[in-house]
Amino acid sequence: xxxxxxxxxxxxxxxxxxxxxxxxxxxxxxxxxxxxxxxxxxxxxxxxxxxxxxxxxxxxxxxxxxxxxxxxxxxxxxxxxxxxxxxxxxxxxxxxxxxxxxxxxxxxxxxxxxxxxxxxxxxxxxxxxxxxxx
Length: 134
Ligand SMILES: [Zn+2]
Hints:
Elements: E1 5-6, E2 23-26, E3 33-34, E4 50-53, E5 57-66, H1 72-75, E6 80-87, E7 92-97, E8 106-114, E9 117-124, H2 127-132
Parallel strand pairs: 7-9
Antiparallel strand pairs: 1-4, 2-3, 2-4, 5-6, 5-8, 6-7, 8-9
Zinc ion is lined by residues 27, 29-30, 32, 41, 43-44, 46.
Domain ChsH2 C-terminal OB-fold: 51-111
Organism: Verminephrobacter eiseniae (strain EF01-2)
InterPro entries: ChsH2_C, ChsH2_Znr, NA-bd_OB-fold, Thioester_dehydratase-like
């Protein structure tokens, strides 16, 4: 669990507001790290919790293939993988993925801009990439 940088909650901005970042909350009481920001810990109820900017490497936990996309822009890309990724920082996040990704693959979360939205998208990383950058 490394590669994270604490950030003031007031400076927190992520992909949902158009910034290329993944954020998570960390509980100082029990250590829980949560992707969905609630302002309290879902495990022990403590508040407040600290907001961190996450590094973006992780391991694919689950994969499903979307054949019927929700919008015409996404339908142009279908079928495409939708993933759950366990970030090295701890939280599990949902992300779109490049074709061919499988459970256990190491990935880096980047971002794709589609239909005016910024969307997390996982791409495979090689062993050389893992060693070249944190
Ligand atoms: Zn807690």
